[in-house]
Structure formats: structure tokens, C-alpha cells
UniProtKB/TrEMBL annotation, chain A:
Pfam families given in the database record: MbnP
Protein name, UniProt field: Copper-binding protein MbnP-like domain-containing protein
Alphabetical list of InterPro entries matching this protein: MbnP-like_dom (IPR046863)
PROSITE patterns given in the database record: PROKAR_LIPOPROTEIN
Copper-binding protein MbnP-like domain: residues covered: 34-227
Organism this protein belongs to: Hymenobacter aerilatus
Domain of life: Bacteria
TrEMBL record, chain B:
PANTHER family: BLL6722 PROTEIN, CYTOCHROME C PEROXIDASE-RELATED
Residues the entry annotates as binding heme c 2: C227, C230, H231
Note describing how the cofactor binds: Binds 2 heme groups.
Needed cofactors: heme
One Pfam family linked to the record: CCP_MauG
GO molecular-function terms, A-Z: cytochrome-c peroxidase activity; electron transfer activity; heme binding; metal ion binding
Name of the molecule in the record: Cytochrome-c peroxidase
Domain Cytochrome c per the UniProt entry, residue ranges: 214-340
Signal peptide location: 1-28
Residue sites binding heme c 1 per the record: C82, C85, H86
């Protein structure tokens, strides 16, 4: 093939320009980060969690109870890849409250695009932030999730009422879990793998990860709890650790992933 | 005289320097007056727990913290401020009060501790229940026998006050006033409460013309020999929790165990600093001793046995306590007097605005 010199230059210039614009387009079209939504669905066994109005059965003891409050912190979210690398979300603190619908949607921005195989997070607040002084947002000490006299965050709150039976009277119960020092460290990390399909965060993939959080597991865990005899938890200590061990063992489950 | 001589030698240059000096001098004075107390770390102190960079001292924020510290509206009843129980003239302890006195005259279980050198404290309160200077005020604020208020109500009251709204917004650039702003501003004041200019400090830093007397020096040596490691460093506390043998059982107040739920911590309390100790009577976590002489008598012959009694108070011969002759007690008391920091106790920048 034979080019005249002017034609060559025109072609070259056009090529260079089109390459340049092509590169620009690629940069615009291929962002390095995407978003991930995590939906927290609260259930009690096979029923939805409804505050105050529904009576549930404790599988440990057949006790009947209602739930009036169900709050917890999720922090230090990390997303794992098949190659063993992971993405730790910076400044990762969420307060989830059954009474606040909005709080049950965790919106993660700036997640590196990639194919993720699992997620891990702390139920509660890491020890560093427990002693870091005044905070804002989810960690605002005015969120009723902070102990004043033995200072530190309350990682988990479940409160409710036990229905009277022939064996015991009606009473309220209170489980406030916190504490980040030995021997009663209640900071627990939950690690979940995505069972059927990976979670693909991409330029055109904003997946939704649906987690199912089963409040019954607080009672029906490795260290079962009978509400009529349990003395509750309201400070760092053995009871708080017992509740934490239970919820860490099986309360959080991957329900499904919407690829979107 | 020297200035006059210099000026005659090189008038133009020195004239300029003179101008600079005269224009700088008043500024420097104003700067010194406006500096935030405690914004310079004393050279004889260890590394602080609450670093200057954490909440850099700033005049306007310090003044806001000072207003909050002395504001009785922080209590439920509107008549108890932080300053009600923490009085500057006695190193921000409560003069002549065995235990704390809160709203409606309610008495707490413990003696109001002095507030000084808090910047160096990793844990606060007699039992160490508070782990950060910024969140520490939540304890007295919400305690039913102290200020008996909620944080939410305090924020409501602050946000209802136009002057507070203006001052907070100017510093933090956003509204409404939130817990972060409130606690950070208050911490600017509490972190500023630095006592480091006692006669002892001047002596130990080798500052000109400051000497200690022979009894004071003997007392200092005795303290190093008999009262450390508990009352160590120039903060005169090692920040540990110890059972100093006040009681045989601890049903009234389990102390550190109240926080840790650990049996081995029963009856242990934070080792208090000895700074300004002659001003902070009564003594011990429950204010049981009215005088320092009683305190020394306790260590000499009053120590009670219990499973958690500090090992340092058990002597090889099986006896308890720290034997101190009358002369030794007199020398120790002489040294303790040198830890009184009049400059701190009278610094008008730390007082309630009149």
C-alpha cells in the first residue's frame, strides 16, 4: 500500500487524536471503585422481627417473649477476594437499629471494583475507638450506645419482656453487651463467605448483599440462655461475653446477593 | 542604658530594630496573656496521654470550655456546675467535703478528686472507669447523685442559648451543637489544668534561685525510698490501682473491681498524685482522713490486712505498712509542702469569670 506524505500525516494525527480520546473514554468508562449496599433483615427464627407486638418462643426453654429494642454496631467491614487479599473499608462504623429503617441499609461507597468471595466485620466497636474520646456519626456518644461510668460503647442491645408462665412471673430483660479488655473482651469478628455466587462490584454492578440476622441465636447459641433465670447484661463481664459468644456464632447469615 | 549606647553607634539600623522591638513587645505581652494555660508541656513531666495535637489548645475554645465548666445549667437542677465540686483554690478538689455532693444535696460514695495534670492520665476517676479525658465528664453529668442530667438535655439547653450557638458555630463551623463539640470544648479547659510550677518543680528543673531546705530534701529522699513506685515520676503517681490497707472488706465500695469485675481488683483504687496535696483534704477515696498526719499514721501503723492488700505494704517480718519515725513524718510533710503550686491555684485564667 502506498501513502502520499500528506495523507500519512493526516492519518497519523487523526490516529494520535483518536487514541488520546480513546484513552480518555476508557478512563471515564472504567472507574476503579463502585458501591455495595448491605441490607440487614432482622428475624426471630422464621418470623420477621417486630418490636413489642409479636410474641416469640425461646427454643432453649419454650419461654414466650417480646422484643422492644434491637440495636448493634457493625464496624471494620472487610471484603475478601479469592486470592486471599481483602479490602478494609476505612472509617467503617455503622449503628443498626430495628427501630430505624434507614439504619438497616449500609451503603458502602468507594469499594474497589472486584469479585469478592466473603465479608468480615466486627460486631461492636474496636478497642481503639472505645478510648478515643468524643466522636461523630454512628459513634456519637449521644446515641444511647455508650456507657458513661465504665466508659465504652455498648456493642449490642436487646431488650424485651418475658411473658409470665406457671413457673415464673413476667419480667423485662435487658442485654447490653460491651467491654473490650481481658478477661471480658466482648469484641467479636464475624466472617461470612458468599455461598452460591461471588459478589461482583463493578462499574455497572452495584450489588446488594442481604444479611439475615436471627435474634433467636442470641438465646440459642453455644451458651444457651434461659430468660427467666438469666440475670441480664448491663456492663462488661461474664454475662456480656456469653451473649457476645452466642450472637457471634450464628446470628449473621448471608441470605442472598442481588447482583444488580 | 545599653540601648541608648547602641543607638548612638548605629542609629539607622538600631532605629529600625527599636521600631521592631517596640512594635513586637506589646504583641508578645498580649500573646502571653492570651496563651492557653498548659499549652506548653513541662520539661520534667513524662509524655502526656492526651497529646497537644489531639485537641490543639486554642484561646476561644479554651474560653468556651471554661464557660461550660462553670455553667450550672449542665446539671438537672441548674445549680451544680463542674466548678461547684472542683474548686480552683484547692486544686479543683472540694474543700471540706468528705464525699461528693450533687443535686438536691445528694452525697456520692467517693471523695471529689482534684483536677490537675489530667492530660497525663490514661484513665480517670478513682476506679479508672473513664478512659478518655473527653468522655470523662459524662460520668458526673449523668450520675444521679452528681449532676443527674442527660447528655441529650445538656445539648438541648446549649442549643437553646444564642450565645453558646454563636460561640460553638464560630469554632466548629456547623450547627447544631453536638456531643463532639461539647466534649471537645470542655476538654480544652480540663486539659489546660496543668500544675507544674511548685517550688519542687522550680528546684527540679534547676531554675535560678530555687532551693529546697534540708528537711525538704530529706523528705524528698524519704519519699523516693518509701513511697515509690506508687507515687513515682514528677506526677507523683504511677497510675496503678492498689489496695493501701484501709479496710478488711469492700462491700461498701469494691473500687477497681467495680469496673473490671475481677475479684483480684477488690479494694483497689487509683494511686492519687501528691501534687497540691496539702490543699486537697480530706484524703483517700472516701475522704476518711482529715489531715496528712492521719494519712502518714495510717501507713505507719493503720494498714489492715485483706487478700488484695498491696504486696509493698507487707514487710518481710510479717508486719504491715511503712514504718515512719516522727522525724521522718515531719520531713515528708515538709517535702509535700513544696508540691503546692500557688501559681496554678491562683491563675485567674482558670477561675470562673466574674
Amino acid at each position: 500500500m502506498k501513502f502520499s506524505l500528506p495523507t500519512f500525516w493526516v492519518a497519523a494525527v487523526v490516529t494520535v487524536f483518536s487514541l488520546a480520546s480513546c484513552n480518555d473514554k476508557e478512563k471515564e468508562a472504567q472507574p476503579t471503585v463502585g458501591t455495595l449496599d448491605i441490607e440487614m433483615e432482622h428475624v426471630v427464627g422464621n418470623r420477621a422481627l417486630a418490636l413489642n407486638t409479636t410474641t416469640y418462643t425461646n427454643p432453649v426453654s419454650n419461654e414466650q417473649f417480646t422484643v422492644s429494642r434491637f440495636n448493634y454496631y457493625v464496624s471494620n467491614i472487610r471484603l475478601q477476594k479469592a486470592d486471599g487479599t481483602e479490602y478494609p473499608q476505612p472509617e467503617s462504623y455503622y449503628l443498626v437499629q430495628e427501630s430505624d429503617t434507614e439504619s438497616k441499609h449500609l451503603h458502602l461507597k468507594d469499594v474497589p471494583i472486584g469479585d469478592y468471595t466473603g465479608i468480615s466485620f466486627v460486631v461492636g466497636v474496636d478497642s481503639a475507638r472505645n478510648v478515643a474520646g468524643a466522636q461523630t456519626g454512628a459513634l456519637d456518644v449521644n446515641n444511647n450506645m455508650f456507657w458513661d461510668w465504665n466508659s465504652g460503647y455498648i456493642f449490642f442491645k436487646m431488650e424485651g419482656n418475658l411473658v409470665a408462665s406457671s413457673a415464673y412471673p413476667a419480667k423485662s430483660f435487658l442485654m447490653h453487651v460491651g467491654g473490650f479488655t481481658k478477661p471480658y473482651n466482648a469484641v467479636r469478628t464475624v466472617k461470612l463467605t458468599f455461598p452460591s455466587s461471588n459478589l461482583l462490584v463493578g462499574a455497572d454492578h452495584s450489588p446488594e448483599l442481604h444479611l439475615r440476622i436471627d435474634a433467636l441465636k442470641v438465646l440459642n447459641g453455644p451458651q444457651p440462655i434461659q430468660l427467666s433465670t438469666f440475670r441480664g447484661a448491663h456492663m462488661p463481664g461474664a454475662n456480656a461475653v456469653q451473649v457476645a459468644n452466642n450472637y457471634a456464632a450464628g446470628m449473621f447469615l448471608v441470605d442472598h446477593i442481588n447482583a444488580n | 542604658m545599653r540601648v541608648f549606647t547602641s543607638r548612638t553607634l548605629t542609629a539607622p539600623l538600631l532605629g529600625l530594630a527599636g521600631l521592631l522591638v517596640t512594635s513586637c513587645q506589646p504583641d508578645a505581652d498580649i500573646l502571653k496573656q492570651q496563651a492557653v494555660p498548659g499549652d506548653t508541656l513541662p520539661s520534667n513531666f513524662p509524655t502526656p496521654a492526651y497529646a497537644l495535637e489531639t485537641n490543639p489548645p486554642d484561646r476561644a475554645t479554651f474560653e468556651l470550655g471554661r464557660t461550660l465548666f462553670y455553667d450550672p445549667r449542665l446539671s438537672r437542677t441548674g445549680d451544680v456546675s463542674c466548678g461547684s465540686c472542683h474548686q480552683q483554690s484547692v486544686a479543683f478538689a472540694h474543700a471540706d467535703h468528705r464525699v461528693s455532693q450533687g443535686v438536691d444535696g445528694l452525697l456520692g460514695p467517693r471523695n471529689t478528686p482534684p483536677l490537675q495534670n489530667l492530660r497525663w492520665r490514661r484513665e480517670l476517676l478513682w476506679d479508672g472507669g473513664s478512659k478518655n479525658l473527653e468522655t470523662m465528664p459524662l460520668a458526673p453529668l449523668t450520675n444521679p447523685v452528681e449532676m443527674d442530667e442527660t447528655l441529650g438535655n445538656v445539648l438541648k439547653k446549649l442549643n437553646a442559648d444564642a450565645d453558646y450557638r454563636r460561640r460553638f458555630a464560630k469554632i466548629y463551623g456547623r450547627s447544631p451543637i453536638d456531643s463532639y463539640q461539647f466534649l471537645r470544648a470542655l476538654a480544652q479547659f480540663t486539659a489546660a489544668l496543668t500544675s507544674a510550677n511548685s517550688r519542687y518543680d522550680h528546684y527540679v528543673r534547676g531554675e535560678a534561685g530555687r532551693q529546697l531546705s534540708a528537711p525538704e530534701l530529706r523528705g524528698r529522699a524519704l519519699l523516693a525510698q518509701k513511697c515509690t513506685p506508687c507515687h513515682s515520676t514528677d506526677l507523683f503517681t504511677d497510675e496503678t490501682y492498689r489496695n493501701n490497707g484501709l479496710d478488711r472488706e469492700f462491700s461498701a465500695d469494691s473500687g477497681r473491681a467495680h469496673i473490671t469485675s475481677v475479684v483480684q481488683d477488690r479494694g483497689k483504687f487509683k494511686v492519687p498524685s501528691l501534687r497540691n496535696v496539702t490543699k486537697t483534704a480530706p484524703y483517700m477515696h472516701d475522704g476518711r482522713f482529715a489531715t496528712l498526719a492521719e494519712v502518714l499514721a495510717h501507713y505507719d501503723h493503720g494498714v489492715q490486712p485483706s487478700p488484695t492488700l498491696d504486696p509493698l505494704l507487707r514487710r518481710p517480718n510479717g508486719q504491715l505498712g511503712i514504718p515512719l519515725t516522727a522525724q521522718e513524718q515531719a520531713d515528708l510533710l515538709a517535702f509535700l509542702e513544696t508540691l503546692t503550686d500557688t501559681e496554678f491555684l491562683q491563675d485567674r485564667r482558670l477561675a470562673e469569670r466574674q
